[in-house]
Write a structure and sequence with these properties.
This protein has four helices and no strands. The chain has one domain: de novo design (two linked rop proteins) (Up-down Bundle), CATH 1.20.1440.60. Helix content is about 75%, strand content about 0%. The protein is an all-alpha fold.
């Protein structure tokens, strides 16, 4: 068991991903500040935020719900990445690498959800 959500590998990788997305989108056109840039940053940051919120909940059903939100944010981020790649904002190799990280996070969250369901 972890003492803090910060000890969880899934949280650590998701906050690192949010940092990476922030850096990747720093030089996008200013016209995207309130559009694409904001959307992908918020969806990515939401992954780690929902994992942290799940950690803070007492009941398994509450924990699972926030993990579902995190999982939803993963797929939202994947969609933003695909759009960014298609319009030329994100290089294909960056998009593929980040998508692989997101796929692994999706699988890890599914494992945690399954474990929590089996305990309940």
């Amino acid at each position: 068991m972890y003492n803090s959500f910060k000890d969880m590998p899934i949280w650590q990788s998701s906050i690192e991903l949010a940092e990476e997305i922030f850096k990747l989108t720093e030089n996008l056109p200013k016209k995207e500040d309130y559009g694409f840039t904001s959307q992908i940053r918020r969806s990515t940051l939401s992954i780690s935020a929902n994992i942290a919120e799940s950690f803070g909940r007492n009941h398994s059903s509450d924990k699972i719900n926030f993990l579902y939100y995190a999982r939803g944010s993963i797929t939202e981020t994947q969609s933003h990445l695909e759009y960014g790649r298609r319009v030329g904002y994100i290089k294909e190799d960056d998009s593929k690498r980040l998508d692989t990280i997101l796929e692994n996070a999706h699988k890890d969250i599914n494992k945690i959800i399954t474990t929590l369901k089996n305990k309940a």
